[in-house]
Design brief:
- The chain starts with a strand and ends in a 9-residue tail after the last helix.
- About 40% of the residues are buried.
- The chain has eleven helices and ten strands.
- The chain is an alpha/beta fold.
- Helix 1 links the parallel strand 2 and strand 3.
- Helix 1 packs parallel to helix 3, helix 4 crosses helix 5 and helix 9 packs antiparallel against helix 10.
- The chain is globular and about 60 Å long.
Protein backbone atom coordinates (compact mmCIF):
# COMPACT_ATOMS: atom_id res chain seq x y z
CA UNK A 1 0.00 0.00 0.00
CA UNK A 2 1.25 3.51 -0.75
CA UNK A 3 0.22 4.75 2.71
CA UNK A 4 0.38 2.72 5.92
CA UNK A 5 -0.28 3.23 9.62
CA UNK A 6 1.64 1.80 12.55
CA UNK A 7 1.59 2.39 16.29
CA UNK A 8 4.32 2.44 18.90
CA UNK A 9 2.97 3.22 22.34
CA UNK A 10 1.11 6.52 22.37
CA UNK A 11 2.70 7.66 19.09
CA UNK A 12 1.38 6.57 15.70
CA UNK A 13 3.04 6.88 12.31
CA UNK A 14 1.55 7.41 8.86
CA UNK A 15 4.17 6.44 6.28
CA UNK A 16 4.05 7.61 2.66
CA UNK A 17 5.59 4.90 0.48
CA UNK A 18 4.79 5.31 -3.20
CA UNK A 19 8.14 5.25 -5.06
CA UNK A 20 9.86 7.02 -6.56
CA UNK A 21 8.51 10.40 -5.39
CA UNK A 22 5.42 9.69 -3.26
CA UNK A 23 3.30 11.30 -5.96
CA UNK A 24 -0.38 10.76 -5.33
CA UNK A 25 -3.49 9.77 -7.22
CA UNK A 26 -7.00 8.83 -6.09
CA UNK A 27 -5.91 5.50 -4.61
CA UNK A 28 -3.12 7.18 -2.64
CA UNK A 29 -5.61 9.67 -1.23
CA UNK A 30 -8.08 6.92 -0.38
CA UNK A 31 -5.30 5.12 1.51
CA UNK A 32 -4.28 8.36 3.24
CA UNK A 33 -7.87 8.99 4.32
CA UNK A 34 -8.10 5.42 5.65
CA UNK A 35 -4.87 5.69 7.63
CA UNK A 36 -5.88 9.04 9.13
CA UNK A 37 -9.18 7.43 10.12
CA UNK A 38 -7.34 4.46 11.60
CA UNK A 39 -5.07 6.76 13.62
CA UNK A 40 -8.07 8.69 14.90
CA UNK A 41 -9.83 5.47 15.91
CA UNK A 42 -7.11 4.53 18.41
CA UNK A 43 -7.88 6.18 21.75
CA UNK A 44 -4.41 5.32 23.06
CA UNK A 45 -2.67 7.11 20.17
CA UNK A 46 -2.18 10.76 21.11
CA UNK A 47 0.35 12.03 18.56
CA UNK A 48 0.73 10.97 14.92
CA UNK A 49 3.89 11.50 12.87
CA UNK A 50 3.44 11.75 9.09
CA UNK A 51 6.66 10.64 7.42
CA UNK A 52 8.10 9.28 4.19
CA UNK A 53 9.78 5.97 3.43
CA UNK A 54 11.87 7.75 0.79
CA UNK A 55 15.21 9.35 1.61
CA UNK A 56 14.78 11.87 -1.21
CA UNK A 57 11.11 12.84 -1.19
CA UNK A 58 8.53 13.64 1.44
CA UNK A 59 6.12 13.96 -1.49
CA UNK A 60 6.34 15.54 -4.92
CA UNK A 61 2.58 16.14 -4.96
CA UNK A 62 -0.01 15.02 -7.46
CA UNK A 63 0.78 12.66 -10.31
CA UNK A 64 0.80 15.13 -13.22
CA UNK A 65 0.36 12.38 -15.80
CA UNK A 66 -2.93 11.44 -14.11
CA UNK A 67 -4.10 15.04 -14.38
CA UNK A 68 -3.38 14.93 -18.09
CA UNK A 69 -5.14 11.61 -18.56
CA UNK A 70 -8.24 12.57 -16.56
CA UNK A 71 -11.06 14.88 -17.52
CA UNK A 72 -11.98 17.82 -15.28
CA UNK A 73 -14.63 15.97 -13.22
CA UNK A 74 -12.17 13.15 -12.48
CA UNK A 75 -9.50 15.63 -11.43
CA UNK A 76 -11.95 17.47 -9.21
CA UNK A 77 -13.00 14.18 -7.63
CA UNK A 78 -9.41 13.60 -6.57
CA UNK A 79 -9.07 17.13 -5.22
CA UNK A 80 -12.32 16.85 -3.25
CA UNK A 81 -11.13 13.55 -1.83
CA UNK A 82 -7.79 15.12 -0.87
CA UNK A 83 -9.54 18.01 0.88
CA UNK A 84 -11.64 15.59 2.90
CA UNK A 85 -8.68 13.36 3.76
CA UNK A 86 -6.56 16.26 5.00
CA UNK A 87 -9.49 17.72 6.95
CA UNK A 88 -9.44 14.49 8.95
CA UNK A 89 -6.25 15.71 10.59
CA UNK A 90 -7.56 19.19 11.38
CA UNK A 91 -10.78 17.85 12.91
CA UNK A 92 -8.93 15.43 15.19
CA UNK A 93 -7.95 16.31 18.78
CA UNK A 94 -4.74 14.35 18.19
CA UNK A 95 -1.62 16.26 17.15
CA UNK A 96 -0.24 15.48 13.70
CA UNK A 97 3.44 16.21 13.08
CA UNK A 98 4.97 16.20 9.59
CA UNK A 99 8.54 14.84 9.63
CA UNK A 100 10.20 16.18 6.46
CA UNK A 101 13.60 15.02 5.27
CA UNK A 102 13.14 15.27 1.50
CA UNK A 103 11.49 17.34 -1.22
CA UNK A 104 7.99 18.56 -0.26
CA UNK A 105 6.51 20.17 -3.34
CA UNK A 106 3.02 21.12 -4.45
CA UNK A 107 0.51 18.79 -2.93
CA UNK A 108 3.31 17.19 -0.94
CA UNK A 109 3.88 20.43 0.93
CA UNK A 110 0.11 20.76 1.28
CA UNK A 111 0.00 17.42 3.12
CA UNK A 112 2.58 18.83 5.53
CA UNK A 113 0.65 22.11 5.85
CA UNK A 114 -2.43 20.14 6.91
CA UNK A 115 -0.46 18.75 9.85
CA UNK A 116 -0.39 20.75 13.08
CA UNK A 117 3.40 20.99 13.28
CA UNK A 118 6.22 20.56 10.78
CA UNK A 119 9.68 19.33 11.82
CA UNK A 120 12.40 19.00 9.21
CA UNK A 121 15.99 18.06 8.58
CA UNK A 122 18.65 20.43 7.36
CA UNK A 123 19.58 19.53 3.81
CA UNK A 124 19.57 20.39 0.15
CA UNK A 125 15.98 19.37 -0.58
CA UNK A 126 13.36 21.94 -1.53
CA UNK A 127 9.90 22.97 -0.41
CA UNK A 128 7.41 24.98 -2.41
CA UNK A 129 4.15 25.43 -4.26
CA UNK A 130 5.11 25.35 -7.97
CA UNK A 131 1.57 24.80 -9.29
CA UNK A 132 1.53 28.19 -11.04
CA UNK A 133 4.25 26.91 -13.39
CA UNK A 134 1.67 24.36 -14.59
CA UNK A 135 -1.00 27.01 -15.04
CA UNK A 136 -2.75 25.86 -11.85
CA UNK A 137 -3.10 26.96 -8.23
CA UNK A 138 -2.20 25.04 -5.05
CA UNK A 139 -5.48 23.13 -4.90
CA UNK A 140 -5.11 20.92 -1.85
CA UNK A 141 -5.37 23.66 0.74
CA UNK A 142 -2.25 25.63 -0.11
CA UNK A 143 -3.92 28.97 -0.83
CA UNK A 144 -5.68 28.77 2.53
CA UNK A 145 -3.31 27.01 4.94
CA UNK A 146 -0.08 28.63 3.75
CA UNK A 147 -1.66 32.08 3.95
CA UNK A 148 -2.94 31.46 7.46
CA UNK A 149 0.45 30.14 8.49
CA UNK A 150 2.84 32.84 7.20
CA UNK A 151 0.63 35.76 6.14
CA UNK A 152 -0.83 36.93 2.86
CA UNK A 153 2.15 38.69 1.26
CA UNK A 154 4.69 35.96 2.01
CA UNK A 155 2.33 33.22 0.88
CA UNK A 156 1.44 35.07 -2.31
CA UNK A 157 5.12 35.56 -3.13
CA UNK A 158 5.69 31.82 -2.93
CA UNK A 159 2.53 30.86 -4.79
CA UNK A 160 2.57 33.35 -7.67
CA UNK A 161 6.26 32.80 -8.42
CA UNK A 162 6.28 29.07 -7.78
CA UNK A 163 9.77 29.42 -6.35
CA UNK A 164 11.17 26.75 -4.09
CA UNK A 165 12.67 27.24 -0.63
CA UNK A 166 15.53 25.65 1.22
CA UNK A 167 14.68 24.15 4.63
CA UNK A 168 16.45 27.11 6.24
CA UNK A 169 14.31 29.67 4.42
CA UNK A 170 11.16 27.67 5.12
CA UNK A 171 12.04 27.66 8.82
CA UNK A 172 12.71 31.40 8.76
CA UNK A 173 9.36 32.09 7.12
CA UNK A 174 7.51 29.92 9.64
CA UNK A 175 6.57 27.14 7.23
CA UNK A 176 8.66 24.78 9.35
CA UNK A 177 8.38 24.85 13.12
CA UNK A 178 11.67 23.15 13.97
CA UNK A 179 14.78 22.42 11.96
CA UNK A 180 17.24 19.72 13.07
CA UNK A 181 20.58 18.42 11.91
CA UNK A 182 19.93 15.68 9.35
CA UNK A 183 21.30 12.88 11.53
CA UNK A 184 19.22 14.01 14.52
CA UNK A 185 15.84 14.57 12.86
CA UNK A 186 14.29 11.15 13.44
CA UNK A 187 15.41 10.96 17.07
CA UNK A 188 14.43 14.50 17.96
CA UNK A 189 11.07 14.35 16.17
CA UNK A 190 10.25 11.19 18.10
CA UNK A 191 11.42 12.81 21.34
CA UNK A 192 9.07 15.74 20.81
CA UNK A 193 6.23 13.39 19.88
CA UNK A 194 6.83 11.31 23.01
CA UNK A 195 6.89 14.42 25.20
CA UNK A 196 3.63 15.70 23.75
CA UNK A 197 2.02 12.27 24.04
CA UNK A 198 2.98 12.14 27.72
CA UNK A 199 1.55 15.58 28.40
CA UNK A 200 -1.95 16.81 29.16
CA UNK A 201 -3.36 15.49 25.90
CA UNK A 202 -6.98 16.33 26.72
CA UNK A 203 -5.90 19.96 27.09
CA UNK A 204 -3.69 19.77 23.99
CA UNK A 205 -6.65 18.51 21.95
CA UNK A 206 -8.93 21.28 23.20
CA UNK A 207 -6.24 23.91 22.53
CA UNK A 208 -5.90 22.64 18.96
CA UNK A 209 -9.63 22.50 18.24
CA UNK A 210 -10.43 25.83 19.91
CA UNK A 211 -7.67 27.48 17.91
CA UNK A 212 -8.76 26.05 14.56
CA UNK A 213 -12.46 26.62 15.17
CA UNK A 214 -12.01 30.13 16.49
CA UNK A 215 -9.28 31.64 14.35
CA UNK A 216 -11.56 32.60 11.47
CA UNK A 217 -14.62 33.34 13.59
CA UNK A 218 -15.58 36.70 15.13
CA UNK A 219 -13.77 37.26 18.42
CA UNK A 220 -16.89 36.77 20.53
CA UNK A 221 -17.55 33.41 18.88
CA UNK A 222 -13.93 32.36 19.35
CA UNK A 223 -14.04 33.31 23.02
CA UNK A 224 -17.25 31.33 23.44
CA UNK A 225 -15.49 28.29 21.98
CA UNK A 226 -12.61 28.88 24.38
CA UNK A 227 -15.00 28.98 27.35
CA UNK A 228 -16.62 25.75 26.23
CA UNK A 229 -13.23 24.10 26.00
CA UNK A 230 -12.01 25.14 29.43
CA UNK A 231 -15.34 24.21 31.02
CA UNK A 232 -14.93 20.72 29.58
CA UNK A 233 -11.34 20.52 30.83
CA UNK A 234 -12.24 21.56 34.39
CA UNK A 235 -14.12 18.26 34.57
CA UNK A 236 -11.12 16.12 33.60
CA UNK A 237 -8.81 14.06 35.75
CA UNK A 238 -5.83 15.71 34.03
CA UNK A 239 -6.93 19.16 35.20
CA UNK A 240 -7.39 17.94 38.76
CA UNK A 241 -3.95 16.30 38.57
CA UNK A 242 -2.30 19.37 37.07
CA UNK A 243 -3.80 21.79 39.59
CA UNK A 244 -3.07 19.43 42.48
CA UNK A 245 0.51 18.88 41.38
CA UNK A 246 1.07 22.63 41.17
CA UNK A 247 -0.29 23.10 44.69
CA UNK A 248 1.81 20.18 45.97
CA UNK A 249 4.94 21.40 44.13
CA UNK A 250 5.41 18.11 42.30
CA UNK A 251 5.53 16.99 38.69
CA UNK A 252 2.09 16.11 37.31
CA UNK A 253 1.35 12.65 35.94
CA UNK A 254 -1.16 13.08 33.15
CA UNK A 255 -3.21 10.22 31.73
CA UNK A 256 -5.15 11.99 29.00
CA UNK A 257 -8.40 11.51 30.89
Amino acid sequence: MPVTFSADGAVGAITLDNPPANSYDIQFMLDLADTIGEANSHDDIRVVVVRSASEKFFSAGADIKRFLANDVPANMEMIALAHEALAGMARSPKLFIAWIAGHALGGGLEIALACDLRYAAEGRFRLGTPEVTLGLLPGNGGTQRLTRLIGTARALDLMVTGRQMSPGEAHGLGVLDRLFAADETAERTRAYADALAAGATAAIGEIKLATYEGVDAPLAQGLARERAGIAKLFETADAREGLGAFADKRKPEFTGA
